[in-house]
Write a structure and sequence with these properties.
The chain has 16 helices and 16 strands. It is of the alpha/beta class. The chain has four domains: 5-280, Alpha-Beta Barrel (TIM Barrel), CATH 3.20.20.70; 297-323, no CATH class; 328-384; 393-506, Alpha-isopropylmalate synthase LeuA, regulatory domain (Double Stranded RNA Binding Domain), CATH 3.30.160.270. The strands form four sheets. The chain has an eight-stranded parallel β-barrel with strand order 2-3-4-5-6-7-8-9, surrounded by eight helices. The chain has a three-stranded antiparallel sheet with strand order 11-12-13. Helix 7 links the parallel strand 7 (168-173) and strand 8 (201-206). Bound molecules: 3-methyl-2-oxobutanoic acid (KIV) and zinc ion (ZN).
Length: 511
């Protein structure tokens, strides 16, 4: 086989991923994810869209100031104001700061959205790239909706922005429309028809509307692309983006037929997936490739037998390669602090002592009630005690009576530091609790979805609740867990209200 080509992994979980409905993250959460990506050793972290809001700007600035190793990208439209604002946030990353500017190039986008002639779009793109280059040589240009762009125009655009100084040119499948052979041909066409193509890295950015984002990205690499844009768990607009774990593990597993490598430390994949799911409330489907709960579970007896004889009979990659430990012991009430700390490290959490202390107290309390503590229980504890820090609204006490007589909830909350209490009758105990919380907080969000489930099996399992709220077109997901499902529900609702408050605060300017 020929020598391997090193492919760059550009992670856009914090930008395109955050555009998933309900996935908004605050600065602290974005920093946690960025640290995970830093450990994973991705090449580029796209931290946000600085002009989109004060919150986005601050997040990009903080990531640029804090993260060492990966390059930090910030997105901007092809205008000077966006580019200036992006660099204002990115400058702290120095040479690792990357300006990522874009404009649409398909006829439908140019005519209907931009209402600009192709020549005008070309001139705007060139001017934007030149302006970006005045700040840094590290400039990426994206031809939005490239897949539906006329190829001769796409080639002219790519050539012009490379001449203007772009060092990476991205070819997005913005609407997830391409077929793998078609996308291969687009990249090949550019390789064959753009005279200066070797002066820039070709990047690809595929959406998953037809479930082909990973397949299209792999096809593009075979045609000569050098960078893949992707997100953890494949989160992103609509059906999401190319999934980082799938493309990276695909390349790693099939090195025998694809001569590509990445710099990703794959043992951090599972931890990153869990953390993102906890932070955003977006649950990973059990049969999701690589990181789904069933990805390494063998149900059929014949498969189990085969795996016991030789794991390679039914496993094309090891669970350890993505950071899962096959032979873990289940923790319980006799497990001490050391075992607990070892397990949280294995799960990919890197917590300071005070956070470990808080989580350990809750672990001990749960172990008194529940015989076996599984990894999912530990995730829920860390999410509740460390990650979902309740800023504005906090649950202090809740007492519910239910049954045939009027279900009643007494809820006590700390609201911006002030203790308030209320007792409300509802159609059921959850309804009563939610009414009390809504009344106490004086919030106007609409409840769009309420899901309850058990984190593990058994009647002593912790209940987990997810709440989706909507307010003025903004959506958030909140989660809560507890042995008592009504408490879990109240926590999820309050978590969602806290997220909504912070989203409203951060999105003071919209695009
Ligand atoms: O999907 C898309 O086209 C994008 C670009 C802004 C890169 O996200
Ligand atoms: Zn996108």
């Amino acid at each position: 086989m020929s020598e391997s080509t090193r492919i760059k992994i550009f992670d856009t979980t914090l930008r395109d991923g955050e555009q998933s409905p309900g996935a908004s993250m605050n600065i602290e959460e974005k920093l946690r994810i960025a640290h995970e990506l830093e450990k994973m050793n991705v090449d580029i972290i796209e931290a946000g869209f600085p002009i989109a809001s004060i919150g986005d700007f601050e997040a990009v600035r903080k990531v640029a100031q804090t993260i060492k190793g990966p390059e930090i990208a910030g997105l901007c439209r092809s205008n000077f104001k966006d580019i200036d604002r992006a660099w204002e946030a990115l400058q702290y990353a120095g040479e690792r700061g990357r300006i990522h500017t874009f404009i649409a190039t398909s006829d439908i986008h140019m005519e209907r959205k931009l209402q600009m002639a192709p020549e005008q779009v070309l001139e705007t793109a060139v001017a934007a790239v030149k302006h970006a280059v005045s700040y840094t040589p590290n400039v990426e240009f994206s031809c939005e909706d490239a897949v539906r762009t006329r190829l001769p125009f796409l080639a002219r655009m790519v050539e012009a922005v490379i001449t203007a100084g772009a060092t990476t040119v991205n070819i997005p499948d913005t609407v997830g429309y391409a077929m793998p052979f078609e996308f291969f041909n687009i990249i090949k066409y550019l390789k064959d028809n753009v005279p200066n193509i070797n002066n820039a890295v070709i990047s690809v950015h595929c959406h998953n509307d037809l479930g082909l984002a990973v397949a299209n990205s792999l096809a593009a690499l075979q045609a000569g692309a050098g960078q893949v844009e992707c997100t953890i768990n494949g989160i992103g607009e609509r059906a999401g983006n190319c999934s980082l774990e799938e493309v990276v593990m695909g390349l790693r597993t099939r090195r025998d037929i694809m001569p590509f490598t990445t710099g990703v430390n794959t043992e951090y994949i599972h931890g990153a997936s869990r953390l993102l799911s906890t932070v955003t409330g977006i649950v990973v489907q059990p049969n999701k490739a690589i990181v789904g709960a069933n990805a390494f579970a063998h149900e059929a007896g014949i498969h189990q037998h085969g795996v016991l004889m030789d794991a390679e009979t039914y496993e094309i990659m090891t669970p350890e390669s993505i950071g899962l430990n096959r032979n873990k012991l289940v923790l319980g009430k006799h497990s001490g602090r050391h075992a607990f700390i070892d397990r949280i490290k294995e799960l990919g959490y890197d917590l300071p002592k005070e956070d470990i202390d808080k989580a350990f107290v809750r672990f001990k309390a749960l172990a008194d009630q529940k015989k076996e503590i599984f990894d999912e229980d530990i995730d829920a504890i860390i999410a509740d005690e460390v990650i979902r820090v309740e800023e504005r609204f906090k649950l202090v006490k809740i007492n519910v009576t239910s049954g045939i007589a009027a279900p009643t909830a007494m809820v006590e909350m700390a609201i911006e530091g002030q203790i308030r209490q209320m007792t409300v009758i509802g159609a059921g105990p959850v309804d009563a609790a939610f009414k009390a919380i809504k009344e106490l907080t004086g919030t106007g969000s609409e409840l769009r979805q309420y899901i309850v489930g058990a984190i593990t099996g058994g009647t002593d399992a912790q209940g987990e609740c997810t709440v989706r709220l909507e307010e003025n077109g903004r959506e958030v997901l909140g989660q809560g867990s507890h042995e008592d499902i009504i408490v879990a529900s109240a926590k999820a609702y309050i978590n969602a209200l806290n997220k909504m408050a912070s989203v409203i605060e951060r999105t003071s300017i919209t695009i």
